[in-house]
Specification:
It is built from two helices and five strands; from the N terminus they run αββαβββ. The chain is α+β, with helices and mostly antiparallel strands and about 100 residues long.
């Protein structure tokens, strides 16, 4: 069964809405005065990919996430996920990947 351009467009919009919601949730977590960390000092953030069915967590130091958000156009992803085709990996450690929009 072929996917129409309209269906593809809807899926893309849903993915971007999911990514935006994940970013908002992560930013609230990062701004909290009482951020929960694990024994290694890592914070569990939600993957910021565009897969609307993704429920994966990515554990990173809080300062790394804050710097990534400040850099703008960067997203925290579970390794193997991609925000957009035009993104490139700038940091990949274990299961964590930070990507940014690549220049065209």
């Amino acid at each position: 069964m072929a996917v129409t351009a309209s269906e593809e467009s809807v899926a893309e919009r849903e993915g971007i809405a999911h990514q935006t919601a994940q970013r908002g949730s992560n930013e609230l977590r990062a701004a909290s005065d009482d951020v929960a960390t694990d024994a290694q000092g890592l914070v569990a953030f939600e993957c910021e990919c565009t897969r609307s069915d993704c429920e994966r967590l990515v554990r990173v130091p809080l300062y790394v996430y804050r710097r990534m958000v400040e850099a703008d156009d960067q997203y925290l992803l579970q390794a193997g996920h991609h925000a957009f085709d035009r993104y490139r990996t700038i940091v990949s450690v274990g299961e964590m990947r930070i990507e940014e929009r690549a220049c065209d």
